[in-house]
Amino acid sequence: MAMVLLPGVMCDAGLWQAMTEDLAPYGPLVYGDLSQDASLAEMAARVLAQAPARFTLVGFSMGGYVAREMIRQAPERVERLILIATSSQQDSEQTQAFKAATARTLLAASGTFRGLGHKAIALSLSDQRADDQRLQQQIHAMSVRAGKETYCRQLLMARPDDSGLLAQIACPTLVIAAADDRMRTLRESQILADNIPGATLQVIENAGHMVPLEQPKALAAVIIRWLQSHEV
């Protein structure tokens, strides 16, 4: 059974690099590209076009929204679903306005795009690891590879509240939250787990939002235990 891995905003396959060895026996691993499209529907369609006929689907952060859209487009192809540090909630009006203003500023700017700033990267990590230079560099490098145009598309992309559609998800589902996530709350993960039939919720300790980079071994262990108990 293949495993399709979907990253978050300004992330790419590098997000999963420290988990590849552990997850490889549950692959082949397919890395979804969310950098080229401007809507959840378009992102989902692109990944589906490149994915195997049937697969386990893993969505991190923004990738969780895309994963659920993929299930709406092709529910028969997703055998198991894993949602990591994500939400079904729509951004607040304040957050939407901030993202739009950031995108306008970037689009109006000339010169070389320098990637995500220190504050944005630090917020995606736990308090304890916010100044970890290795992690900072990994996240920054992914954002530089993604580029300004991708960042603007992702900032402006609508993420409607799909809480009312969660009951339609019929495949086995694992929801994973990070205990020290400063971007997504445990409550948001609980809503997902409560509204997806039969879903399981697990919490990774000592990790911020970028849990695949901060706690890759712990995250992989939780995923593998769940996969072994939900073999297809």
UniProtKB/TrEMBL annotation:
Superkingdom assignment: Bacteria
Stored Pfam families: Abhydrolase_6 (PF12697)
Domain AB hydrolase-1: 35-221
InterPro entries noted in UniProt: AB_hydrolase_1, AB_hydrolase_fold, AB_hydrolase_sf
Protein's UniProt name: AB hydrolase-1 domain-containing protein
Gene source species: Erwinia typographi
